[in-house]
Design brief:
Distance between the termini: 18 Å
Order of helices and strands: HHHHHHHHHH
Number of strands: 0
Largest sheet: none
Strand content: under 5%
Helix content: over 70%
Number of helices: 10
Length: 220
């Protein structure tokens, strides 16, 4: 029953995240504002929109208690697929690298302040799994919704940077397109939206497999 409630909760949470982005845009379109007008307004703001989205996504990773998925969806909606893909990938690379470095250099006292005491068990759980010894497993965990905690966890485990970097890059390049594509498909190409939903469905199957076979749970 607890597992069922957890799955339902995650589904509801994801639907809410999509609604936070989609509903205001649908209201704007119903009021007569076209996709082109929305994109033109975003372009008039120049670098501030990509920079603001970068900062929001960055902060949501360094401070994991903040929601981050909505910013990736919003980036896809406002910037289009390729610009959003670049912004989110760069933000995730910088923020995960910083989280890893802070954990490896300053240890548990600083990490506990950033993530909060109630999440430290999850962070330390990932650190105790010796993920650095298994490229595939570390990449898989970084592709999951736990990637911010994993970055801190493997940093606390004093994982060498050379073992953390390749899985981080692969996980970002593989996991970012479906979420960004979901946002891009809301206003623009429905083919991108279909691709994004298909990718997210495959990821849900993958995460289910990971939980069953590697002992990942909400208490990890």
């Amino acid at each position: 029953m607890a597992k069922k409630n957890g799955v339902v909760g995650r589904i509801i949470g994801f639907v809410v995240l999509i609604a936070v982005v989609a509903v205001p845009l649908i209201v704007l379109k119903r009021s007569g504002i076209s996709n082109e007008e929305i994109q033109a307004y975003v372009e008039q703001l120049g670098i501030w929109v990509p920079f603001g989205l970068f900062l929001l996504r960055f902060t949501s990773v360094v401070i994991p208690a903040l929601p981050g998925t909505v910013y990736a969806i919003l980036a896809g909606t406002l910037l289009g697929f390729w610009k959003a893909f670049a912004v989110v990938c760069f933000s995730d690379f910088v923020s995960c690298s910083l989280s890893f470095w802070l954990a490896s250099q300053y240890g548990r006292p600083l990490v506990s302040k950033l993530v909060g005491q109630r999440f430290m068990g999850r962070v330390e759980g990932f650190g105790q799994r010796h993920l650095e010894d298994n490229f595939f497993l570390l990449t898989a965990f970084l592709m999951s919704g736990f990637f911010d905690f994993v970055s801190y966890g493997v940093g606390l485990a004093r994982t060498p940077w050379r073992k953390f970097l390749p899985p981080l890059v692969v996980s970002i390049l593989v996991s970012t397109p479906p979420v960004v594509g979901l946002g891009a498909g809301i206003l623009a190409d429905k083919k991108i939206l279909g691709f994004a939903l298909g990718g997210l469905f495959l990821f849900s199957l993958f995460l289910g497999w990971l939980r069953r076979n590697q002992g990942v749970s909400d208490r990890t």
